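Why do we care about 3D structure at all? Because function follows from shape, and shape follows, mostly, from sequence. That is the central idea of this module. The next example makes it concrete: a single protein chain, its amino acid sequence, and then its structure expressed as tokens.
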Amino acid sequence: MPGLMDFAGLWRIERLIEDHLGGQGVFDGTVRFVPDGNGLHYREEGLLTLDKATPMRAERSYHWRPGPDGAIEVLFEDGRPFHSFNPATAPADRHHCDPDIYDVTYDFTGWPDWSSTWVVSGPRKDYIMRSRFTLA
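And the structure:
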């Protein structure tokens, strides 16, 4: 299973968003993991198409940091904790963004291809977001 620094480099990302409250979306772009002295800076950029609307530019950034016993801690861009996972033993976690809940599961069985699935539920949100990552 991969360790934190195995993610360094450029990845292609394809994402499908199945929103039970408002339709579907597709994101097509790249993710660049750049070493930053404390781990990796994750930068995602691409085109997001919601239903049949005109595609729009979308981006997001996170910090991936080493955690205990091989875990990877994911922080928001401003340094707040988001979630953590261990690629070898427990590639899943939960994030509470009151009042909504974000459950993530990672799949590294086809490494270096990998995926993440987010199931988001709550009074304001109800969607599944599946992302596939391949080396660019």
